[in-house]
């Protein structure tokens, strides 16, 4: 008999294959594009994590692997019995062996291969040693001293988001109420408060929080995507302006900035108040754009804090992990 524990506040979108005894905690979101997510038996996804699979890079997770709070996994393959710290980011095409341990906040780059029984830390992640017997004992203890792997038992969930579904919540703040274009779509678990304007054909994904309270206005242009579990806010006497055709990846924090048109901010990035990103900018995953930073058009920026690492010579297409 299948035994799944999926919290009511989670959102499972697309065709997702779940093994027996999978646990998905509050606020976590799994989005499968064309049948591209498989979780093994007894794996756990803890609070406010985001897992996305794509046809180019399906997301596959082995048995008894545990993802910490606010993990972001996009198109990775992760083995059995892995212990993954809070805030870890796996990027498309990365391949993780069995029984690996990841320190909190680690970023695994695109296409990176991590062998079995590795301890990995850093941004980008680096293997610092092989597992010790003490590490293996910890992995076993965290699983009730049972690291045996049972035969995979599959349960398929298929839940496509549709235009007819309930839209997200809009809240008044003072005399201000969000203004949302009729052609925009707000996923049901998104919440938008106060002085916020959202333009034509924009998409606000599951778990997103956009707060336009007494601090200042939030202006979101046309054909913008704000992806899962991102938060938009700002400091007093400021404004947050997102121009047309921008993509904000999952798990980002965007605070009181101006983001030029056709920019992509990849997963888990933080953009701070009074900063400015030019048009057609690419912000790499996990970057921190400091307060009052200014970047010209067509820049590739990365780091903690972020710096320009090159010029973006082509007009960007929306990435494959974005919403259709």
Automatic annotation (TrEMBL):
<keyword id="KW-0808">Transferase</keyword>
<dbReference type="InterPro" id="IPR011004">
    <property type="entry name" value="Trimer_LpxA-like_sf"/>
</dbReference>
<dbReference type="InterPro" id="IPR050484">
    <property type="entry name" value="Transf_Hexapept/Carb_Anhydrase"/>
</dbReference>
<dbReference type="InterPro" id="IPR001451">
    <property type="entry name" value="Hexapep"/>
</dbReference>
<protein>
    <submittedName>
        <fullName>Isoleucine patch superfamily enzyme, carbonic anhydrase/acetyltransferase</fullName>
    </submittedName>
</protein>
<dbReference type="Pfam" id="PF14602">
    <property type="entry name" value="Hexapep_2"/>
</dbReference>
<dbReference type="GO" id="GO:0016740">
    <property type="term" value="F:transferase activity"/>
</dbReference>
């Amino acid at each position: 008999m299948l035994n799944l524990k999926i919290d009511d506040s989670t959102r499972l979108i697309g065709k997702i294959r779940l093994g027996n005894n999978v646990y998905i905690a509050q606020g976590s979101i799994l989005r499968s594009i064309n049948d591209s997510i498989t979780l093994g038996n007894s794996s756990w996804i803890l609070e406010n994590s985001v897992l996305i699979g794509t046809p180019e890079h399906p997301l596959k997770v082995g048995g008894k692997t545990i993802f910490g709070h606010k993990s972001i996994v996009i198109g990775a393959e992760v083995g059995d019995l892995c212990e993954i710290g809070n805030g870890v980011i796996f990027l498309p095409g990365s391949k993780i062996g069995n029984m690996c341990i990841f320190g909190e906040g680690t970023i695994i780059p695109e296409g990176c291969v991590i062998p079995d029984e590795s301890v990995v830390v850093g941004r980008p992640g680096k293997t610092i040693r092989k597992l010790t017997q003490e590490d293996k004992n910890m992995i076993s203890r965290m699983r009730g001293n049972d690291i045996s792997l049972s035969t995979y038992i599959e349960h398929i969930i298929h839940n496509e988001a549709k235009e007819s579904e309930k839209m997200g919540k809009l809240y008044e703040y003072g005399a201000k109420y969000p203004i949302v274009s009729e052609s925009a779509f707000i996923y049901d678990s998104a919440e938008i408060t106060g002085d916020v304007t959202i333009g034509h054909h924009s998409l606000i994904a599951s778990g997103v929080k956009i707060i336009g309270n007494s601090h200042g206005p939030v202006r979101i242009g046309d054909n913008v995507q704000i992806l899962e579990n991102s938060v938009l806010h700002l400091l007093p006497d400021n404004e947050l302006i997102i121009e047309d055709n921008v993509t904000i990846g999952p798990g980002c924090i965007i605070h009181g900035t101006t983001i030029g048109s056709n920019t992509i901010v990849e997963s888990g990035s933080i953009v701070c108040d009074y900063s400015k990103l030019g048009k057609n900018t690419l912000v790499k995953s996990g970057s921190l754009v400091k307060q009052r930073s200014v970047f010209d058009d067509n820049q590739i920026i990365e780091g903690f804090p972020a710096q320009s690492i090159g010029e973006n010579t082509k007009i960007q297409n929306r990435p494959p992990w974005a919403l259709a």
